[in-house]
User: Fold these one by one.
Assistant:
Number 1:
Amino acid sequence: MIVVMSREATQDQAERVGTLLRENGLYPVFGASDGATVLVAEESGTRELATAVQAAGGVDRVVLAPGPQRLTSRHFSPHDTRVAVAGPDGPIIGGKGFVVIAGPCAVENQQQMTTVVDTVVSSGAAMLRGGAFKPRTSPYSFQGLGVAGLALLAEQRSRTGLPVITEVVTPEDVERVAEESDMLQIGTRNMQNFALLREAGKSQRPVLLKRGMAATIEEWLLAAEYLMHMGNGDVVLCERGIRSYERSTRFTLDLSAVAEAKRLTHLPVVVDPSHSTGRPHLVGPMSLAAAACGADGLLIDVHTDAQAALCDGAQALDGTQFAALMEQLKPVVEAVGRTLAQPRSPYLTQV
Ligand code: PEP
Ligand code: MN
């Protein structure tokens, strides 16, 4: 059961609802949604109890959601959530616009960033990506530039006027990464890092939550619940491939998860065709398929010197491939009633 208190409700009124639920065998967790207190119980509760709770002081609405999901459920919010990145003038993920986010896997140096960013901006990317903190499988691989990488990414943000997304890997770094970027990325290896989810849930920044490479759709949505019940409703899910026995691709891109997640949740879903396939020649076809099956956008690795890339060069598109993909995407997104989100940047006319 979910109880949404009115914004004017007092702490006392919320406590009284909590007591009423506990007396009836429901054990709610207090959270926040859209500036109001919410009490969320794992147990679904009966209609009779819902009616009694609805009559209590300060209650705005009571939602009975079947299944394990609560705030991420379409029962809580039937309409598609639109996540505004960087305020009302920035891209909106989950609306009519199909948002393409592009950039290198890792921030390496200023020249690399400027070259790659110029390339993706001139082809119409609406947002920039680049990892400063890299969660690498091997401790001997390039771990990212850390704080220095954040500064290089922020420099591209102010140079181009486009919003940036970057990964955060520890709870302690959330505040700093949120200050220097427009959207936090939680990677596949951290999908169930609950301390990190809680901290990102307290942040005011939108969060892109990648699916764990061995996570079920239900586990993925419950990870999003952690973010939402801490008060962050600006959550975007990202399908990035799951582990299977197949070795010709890096992971197995589960596009059925996109359609299924969109049925189960009001949150937007984007697709990462780069980390999932690990092969540049598959990025194009999978991007078109993602758009066709209802994804709200793409997160794509682009590098202008892939051979020299410090991270994931083998899966990056070059500038020509990315430009061609952006052209191919247009008719596909239009066929499903969308448009390619246009970047809003004064810098565009100069590239
Ligand atoms: C990334 O996007 O840079 C990344 C590390 O992806 P994933 O968490 O999906 O492996
Ligand atoms: Mn990568």
Number 2:
Amino acid sequence: MKIFFLSAEVTPFAKVGGLGDVAGALPKALAELQLDVAIFMPRYDIIDLSHHPVERIPIPDDWHVGINYQDHRFGILKSRLPGTDVPVYFLENNDFFYRGGIYNGPGGAPFSDEPQRWIFFQKGFLEFCKLLEVRPHVIHCNDNQTALIPAYLRTTYAHDEVFRQTAAVITIHNIAYQGVYPSDTMQSAGFHTNLFYPESPFELDGAVNMLKAGIYFADLITTVSPTYAEEIVSGPEFGYGLENVLASRAGNLFGVLNGIDDTVWNPADDAHIPHPYDVDHIEGKLANKKGLIEYFGLPTEALHDPIVGVISRLVYQKGIDLTVEAIYRCVHLHDNVRFVVLGSGESRLEADLLSLARAHPDKVSLYLGYNNGLAHMIEAGADIFLMPSRFEPCGLNQMYSQRYGTIPVVRATGGLADTVREFNPEQNRGTGFRFTSLDPDDLLAALTRALHFYRDPAIWTILVRNAMRMDFSWRGPAIAYKYLYQKAQQKAAS
Ligand code: ADP
């Protein structure tokens, strides 16, 4: 079975969040199941290919993508996912992708031709398949940037020989991002404008909605945890307006929990942390905690006090306002609890965190920005990890945390509910602490339970070991996707 995996981000080439991690890891796990999988992504200027083997695929001069009666030429580079044989194809066009960023430029503002960039990416992929006569059995689309592919396969490309046996699967990594654009985007995309009318597959609230089209036309829809799959059909709070189209396709919607790349996130072999450790040698964790304390210039006595880590995009979704409130209350309630926060995002949330860090330099350390190495150091050096998301399709950091023996305190929503079990001291089962409401008192109660058990080293060690023994690898999820690919193919053929 030939699978093409399309994504706007792929680790280690270009990543903003969890999508990049998934796109860099799931194809590897699929290849281990003997599937013939390849990745397709844009060639951004921010991608450093100097350490990767690269070959250029010749493209004839007259081969191009048309958008709004303008022809755009493209190049194709081919490399490999490091450490694997999985091919990675990069779609090259400097006008669209040499912008200093993936979704936004360095200043953070979205690009004015955003829909055209993603239309170009998707049509470029389809034209590439035609040129090379690649006949994918399944195109696995991810999020709104690739959500028009299922629509193309059923409309403008419906009679192309190369796609005769192609099924489309779309994975929703976060339904809050839908690709919503003005109605003339239909023309840019090359769809007949009579496909756009109130409640048509392309329309929501008067605008073109790319994700809606993807959900409507895909053979199968998946999302990244079983709980999120239930939440997004339950109503507008989680479905963000797409709950009805999802409900209409409920029989074809599946929740498959993301895995983690346990070769990249492995405390026993992690180039970013100075002291490797594993479940039988957890002493190494304390040495990493010492390194983290030194890195942030926290007082040395912090070594024997609890450190709470936060690594996140600083946005509403992640409940960072609750985090701010929890830190504020904690530093006033407890003398010895410390926070290390890594993230960047909304300026108001950044400012709130900054003022807490300035007011309590011995208790709150903050790194505003993106720093992958530091993310690994925090996972290794912190004791507790806080993730109070409003909604969380899957979430990766709570899984990384468990693997690094850093006990998660989470709001029980989406993938957080599926991956963190409340610790039960009678049975010594469970790996973290959960709360359900958005009330800061509930968050604080869960954090207080964690701090309570931290005081008992024997129990804490059991908890840390429970967490580190969890298997969040991609093996199980990859088997589920293989099954769904077969199912999608049967559907497409019927
Ligand atoms: P989302 O995709 O919604 O941002 P996930 O938990 O699924 O959330 O994935 C977030 C990923 O991005 C994790 O790999 C996390 O470590 C990483 N990350 C987020 N913010 C930062 C940051 N400021 N520096 C380094 N890594 C970050």
Number 3:
Amino acid sequence: MYLSQQQIEDYHSNGFLILPGMVEEDVRKVLIQQADSLVHDLREDWFSSVFSTKNQTETTNEYFLSSGDKIRVFMEEGNLANESSSHRVNKLGHALHDLDPVFSIFSHDDRFGRIAKDIGIQQPGLLQSMYIFKQPRIGGEVNMHQDATFLYTDPVSVVGFWFAMQDATLDNGCMWALPGGHRLGLKSRFVREGMTTKFEVLDESPVPEEGYVPLEVPAGTLILLHGLLPHYSKANLSDRARQAYALHVIDQMTHYPADNWLQRGKDMKLTSFEQQFIKK
Ligand code: FE2
């Protein structure tokens, strides 16, 4: 076991768990540097796609739908002509944990495997990863959602491992979550329909709009997020970036539907925490 019994109970009761001090400062620096160099390497892609959870029209874009087993760059939307191109990068996704050697080693940490088992994932599979930049002044809001909407399994099993690469505070757009909200059930699924996508409503009853708490955390903190937990983040209005690395893990004992938006090539089976896709 890695977590204490109390931490396991807190996770199941709140739908999230905050674990400070999980990423050493030198490791964070390496990850931040690696993300920066990936952005530079991917500069040809900068104008290929714009990401927003508000406007899903871009998701009809083949660039997004085929990014599940690649590393691609997604830009902030809106009129940002005055901003430099690299400053407009919203995130990298969605297979950094398998394809990038630095993120692969970081993601396949035995501690995270033990945590996954502690919170009930029998056979953890590393499904998806994102490096989120939340740039100073222009980092956009992410609307309230449940991660299981986008990373669905039957039964629901996805857990987010969200690592603060920098301090996350009220003014730079920290996460907000609804304690206990993971017991409300799944409201919708985001599914593929050919080369387009749609939301399939599973439960019309609304998610409460009140009761969310800000998860202000120092750099190096790991926040575990239950896949059914409603959460969001506000825009970054500060002069400081709020970078984060998010790794999503599912239980391979569950069924992964063929109409989930995220599909990986047949040669890219999910890795466990013990087994990297890239050989060390
Ligand atoms: Fe999320």
